[in-house]
């Protein structure tokens, strides 16, 4: 039996506390643990110490370079704020240690391109946390779409409540854009319309995507509509499948799960998992990353692939319409 991989983590924020850390704790537990939680680093050492106590990290640091130098980990988890991601990854990637990082891969197109080039130059196995790609229903949707191809049309909605941050397109709606890319392939053009809220810079987003395959998709993002819901529908000739995400991407009163239709008949009706770490794709994305490390094969989402999702999200953020190969803005979100 192989030994657990020695893991270190950079960043101890609230999202990591609620989703990534509990998942990593599970992977470090049991009779056959896949990782050992060697150390955690945060600029706030008190917060890191609380993390270590709650989740079982062995050591605490406030300098990630020192942590990596002393621990010599097998894998690194980077969970810092988007504005800090490029700087931290630029220092880590030359070490050629397998890396799992939160999205987005930088906050400009230029940063994402640079990080992808660094990963390629140093032959770093890396994974970007686009967790929709590991949600069980989305994985089944992708498999279904591949089996019934060609896709004619897709539709997605991301509904949120009180999410009025100005950079929502890049920091959160990028998930829906990436999920549509994951299912439908690369987008070649985008049409963006927005509707501003009167109180500030928050906007609803209305996006049409054109894919290299010829498929078309529509995405609606409403940031303050009184409920939370996220779902995806893919349609081919005479059949369709839709996935409504479960906890915590849909309000408790919303139906969640998978449905498939053919010839005006319901062919599939599965409920979403009740475990939020499974339903949210966190268990899956971390397991797939460790599988990739063990097998030496690419994970579902790498920096090389994620840069295309960031370019698309940045185009939407800047209300761009046109061919994506002509969009190269490096303006920060």
Could you please describe the fold and organization of this structure?
- The chain is α/β, with parallel strands linked by helices.
- It has 2 domains: 5-131 and 283-300, NAD(P)-binding Rossmann-like Domain (Rossmann fold), CATH 3.40.50.720; 132-272 and 312-326, 2-Layer Sandwich (Dihydrodipicolinate Reductase, domain 2), CATH 3.30.360.10.
- It has 11 helices and 15 strands.
- It has helices at 14-27, 45-55, 64-71, 82-92, 109-121, 136-148, 168-171, 174-184, 276-279, 282-295, 303-317; strands spanning 5-10, 35-41, 59-61, 75-78, 99-101, 126-128, 153-159, 187-196, 203-211, 216-222, 229-236, 239-244, 257-262, 265-271, 322-323.
- It has a 9-stranded mixed sheet. It has a 6-stranded parallel sheet with strand order 3-2-1-4-5-6, with helices on both faces.
- Strand 1, helix 1 (14-27) and strand 2 form a beta-alpha-beta unit.
- Helix 1 (14-27) crosses helix 10 and helix 6 packs parallel to helix 8.
- The radius of gyration is 20 Å and the shape is globular.
- The model has no long low-confidence stretch (mean pLDDT 95).
Global outline: globular
CATH superfamily of the largest domain: Dihydrodipicolinate Reductase, domain 2
Q: What strand order characterises the main sheet?
A: 14-13-12-11-7-10-9-8-15
Rounded Rg: 20 Å
What is the topological layout?
Layout: E1 5-10, H1 14-27, E2 35-41, H2 45-55, E3 59-61, H3 64-71, E4 75-78, H4 82-92, E5 99-101, H5 109-121, E6 126-128, H6 136-148, E7 153-159, H7 168-171, H8 174-184, E8 187-196, E9 203-211, E10 216-222, E11 229-236, E12 239-244, E13 257-262, E14 265-271, H9 276-279, H10 282-295, H11 303-317, E15 322-323
Parallel strand pairs: 1-2, 1-4, 2-3, 4-5, 5-6, 7-10
Antiparallel strand pairs: 7-11, 8-9, 8-15, 9-10, 11-12, 12-13, 13-14
Helix pairs in contact: 1-10, 5-11, 6-8, 8-11
């Amino acid at each position: 039996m192989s030994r657990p991989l020695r893991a270190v983590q950079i960043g101890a924020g609230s999202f990591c506390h609620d989703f990534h850390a509990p998942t990593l704790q599970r992977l470090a537990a049991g009779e056959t643990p896949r990782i050992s939680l060697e150390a955690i680093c945060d600029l706030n050492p008190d917060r890191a110490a609380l993390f270590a106590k709650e989740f079982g990290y062995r050591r605490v640091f406030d300098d990630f370079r020192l942590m990596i130098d002393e621990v010599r980990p097998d894998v690194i988890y980077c969970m810092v704020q988007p504005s800090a991601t490029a700087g931290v990854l630029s220092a880590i990637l030359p070490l050629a240690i397998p890396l799992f990082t939160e999205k987005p891969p930088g906050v400009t197109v230029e940063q994402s391109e640079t990080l992808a080039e660094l990963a390629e130059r140093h032959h770093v196995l890396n994974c970007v946390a686009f967790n929709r790609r590991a949600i069980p229903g989305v994985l089944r949707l992708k498999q279904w779409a591949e089996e019934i191809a060609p896709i004619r049309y897709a539709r997605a909605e991301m509904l949120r409540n009180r999410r009025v941050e100005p950079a929502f397109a890049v920091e959160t709606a990028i998930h829906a854009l990436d999920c549509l890319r994951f299912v439908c392939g690369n987008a070649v053009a985008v049409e963006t319309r927005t509707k501003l809220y009167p109180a500030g810079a928050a906007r609803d987003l209305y996006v049409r995507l054109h894919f290299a395959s010829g498929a078309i998709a529509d995405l609606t993002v409403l940031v303050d509509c009184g409920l939370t819901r996220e779902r995806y529908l893919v349609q081919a000739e005479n059949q369709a499948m839709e996935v409504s995400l479960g906890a915590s991407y849909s309000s408790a009163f919303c139906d969640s799960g998978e449905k498939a239709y053919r010839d005006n008949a319901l062919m599939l009706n599965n409920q979403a998992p009740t475990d939020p770490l499974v339903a949210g794709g966190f268990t899956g994305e971390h397991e797939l990353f460790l599988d990739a490390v063990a097998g030496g094969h690419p994970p579902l989402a790498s920096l090389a692939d994620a840069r295309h999702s960031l370019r698309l999200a940045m185009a939407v953020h800047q209300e761009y319409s046109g061919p994506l190969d002509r969009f190269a803005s490096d303006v920060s979100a």
